[in-house]
Amino acid sequence: MRNRQATKLLFELSKPGRRAARMPRGDVGDAAVEELLPAECLAERPLPLPELAEPDLVRHFVNLSTENMSVDTHFYPLGSCTMKYNPKRNERLAALPGLSGVHPYQDESTIQGLLEILFELQEMLAEISGLDAVSLQPAAGAHGELTSLMMAAAYFRDLGDRRRKVLIPDSAHGTNPASAAMAGFRATTVKSTADGYVDLADLDQKIDEDVAVMMITNPNTLGLFEPRIRTISEKVHAVGGLVYLDGANMNAILGVARPGDFGADMMHFNPHKTFSGPHGGGGPGAGPIAVDRRLEPYLPLPLLVRRDGRYVLDENRPKSIGRVRSFFGNTGVLVRAYLYLRTLGPDGLRRVAENAVLNANYLLARVKHFLPVPHGDRCMHEFVASAATLKNDKQITAMDIAKRLLDYGFHAPTVYFPLVVKEAVMIEPTETESKETLDAFAEALFRITEQPGESLGAAPLSTAINRPDEVRAARKPVLHWTPPCDGS
Amino acid sequence: MPYILNTDEDRRAMLEAIGAASMDELFEVVPEAVRLTRPLDVPSALSEVELTATVKRLAEKNRPAGEAVSFLGAGAYDHFIPAVVDEIASRGEFYTSYTPYQPEVSQGNLQVFFEFQTLFTQLTGMDVSNASMYDGGTAATEAVLMCLAAAPKRTKVVTTTSVHPEYRQVLATYFENLDAEVVSLDTPTGAIDPAVLANVVDKQTACVLVQQPNFFGCLEPVEEVARIAHEAGARLIVVVDPISLGLLRRPGDYGADIVVAEGQSLGNPMSFGGPYLGMLACREQFLRRMPGRITGQTVDHEGRRCWVLTLQTREQHIRREKATSNICTNQGLLALRATVYLSAMGPAGMRELAELCLRKANYAAERVTAGARCTPAFDRPFFKEFVVRDRRGRVSELLASARDEGIFAGVPLGRWYAELEDCFLVAVTEKRTRHEMDDLAQVLSRSTSERTVVHA
After folding, report:
1. How far is B394 from chain A (nearest CA, A)?
2. Long-range contacts of A310-316 (CB under 8 A, 24+ apart)
3. pTM
């Protein structure tokens, strides 16, 4: 069934003289380009782009699309990524010309409806976070982290306080330490206990008045709610530091607990996870942040505010860290978050959290007998199993399990993360899956663990390709197509 | 609840399998002291019918580009988007998938990223491209950070006021916490004066950041800029408008070390500033300092050609605080749109498009500045944008009166440049017709006569 002709590279399908797009006829004369631009600025040759007709193009890209697994086609329990269903109404409405056709520098009088949507979204995010002020600017979760840390740096600079340290638990996402470094801080790792929580003894050793921020993910990447979160926050506050919440796992606690209420001073949301924005094959996401009142003056420019019943982009904020991206924000993603929140309402949001947690616990209960879950019998929205025993006993690795699941028609869980679990298999089913799907997935997992380890090394068997040579890709990078006659 | 599948019966069966008495028991781990004991105070749920009506009402309060005649640009443009772009991008297999962690079931996305990387190197004449980043502004900043990392003893970055002001603001924000300085040279004549630049670029300079065509639409003397930068041992970063490359020399052909672009023009809606498409390509020697996702070609176990994410040892999930950047995703869907767009346009389409923009912009500039009120601010060749000076110095009134006539005439420049308080920037894409440009000229001159009458 695979159409190997249509899925050749665009450049191999190209034939001189073919074309898909034709421009309108000129209506302002045909002055020579050389009369309008200096000769030395002009290209000497036509661009070496491929030449294709529209039917070519469509068949090429449609066939390529069928080589992807996606939420629309498969169960996608990729831990930490919250691959929930992407509502179709959001796609239709976000594409309305009155929203998608707006230029970023239109006069405010011509975009009051859009600003109203964005302002209401800010208010909803403030309420969900239990914090005071929101900026919709950051382009992704990692960008929200960086923005918040730059705000923390400005806040302490204002206090005349040169704090350098950012505490980060060892189970955290890699973006946390990378963001801290980019904001000029030094990342210090805090250990986890055997049961997966922040090690308070280690925290006590590392906490001091040089701590600017503690970044914490709660529920953490093991899918556990940190029971001593208030104590941890109090310890950070006692030395004058700020608590940052990585909001990657907000899906578990919508309407159940609010970061502001458990001690966070700053946080980011991942609307592409929690609020159903499509992941787009890697993006776009967005990373709106919510902060405590003390940090509001430092929010990036511009800030969307309401004044006398009008919505205004406030650029006059002397303490702001400034601009962190061009234009306002990832509006298209933010509008989808607004649509999702308006569809669910307060009860719906709480039920999202409940069913996400129910689905994860159910799956945990189904698989723990044959795929051990080191951190207990209960979890929040996801859990991390370990294939360490299977690897010892039967030479079945986390990677083998991931690859074989593809043959059963399931996307693989996240594997080898978090780093604190050996042979980690991180499973996040989300609330938009049925018991039947979870049963079928558990059954597939069980059958895989029953197979002889040596037979799994060849998996997947049913996909278009099988275990690409990643070492070769990195050693001799081929990062673009080269014409065959080129020889280079 | 439209997106939850569990029935009451399912829930009972699942709780039983878990061994939990109730849903509340699952949340017992959340300490009582931090539990929310009331419903969230957010608006109540809407059905799809109500949601559609509500959002349509709000959308109709806006005046998008299609309802007014738009001459707005300044980094975001009203170019035409072919239907084939929307059609391909609306396939769920593309837009509901994620980062290709499992290459066996992500070859569609990976091949598209490989094609995207190839197209951007073809467009710019550079050696290697990543698989995209947030937007043009952050891509420019990341390029500067690459140059600083590549030359640890150099701590100066030279740019000019003819680079997009918001890009320079982003740079300033990121630099607040780093040991490096940014020098921004004035460009009172609308482009760089090479003699001034040569005085500032020195052995401390890590890189020179310029934009071609620049923020004012004017062409920069890029070859001389490249020579000045390289003679001092500094790198050259060029921000380009991808559409202009249908006509202009490619940055790789005049010595750029890193090229960045805002890819919104390549088939992506304006969407009030985002999500957009940051593009970054560089010379081979900087490859391992490049931020973001990169797709590479390899073979599988059976020798079949295929694609994977590669060079991941640069990235944050492995290198953590030592990573080249904290970026952990790309703008996959927008990169897909740009890939479809560029392959639909091809070399002939890109050339025709660039010629149309050039000729129309020149026509519009001539018409708009023919009257007594508006004059060109700079006497330089330009591509698709130009700066107009209002001799009466009442830019906001002038633009407001054009708005009343259904025309978004331009972006006022006073918000970024005190010396250009009486100026605005006009952009012309292939969508604008002669008739619309004549209307623009007329509206701008009519407000002259009205004003004359009022003040007579």
Report:
1. 16
2. A310/A108, A310/A112, A311/A108, A311/A112, A311/A115, A311/A116, A311/A118, A311/A119, A312/A108, A312/A115, A313/A108, A313/A115, A315/B415
3. 0.97
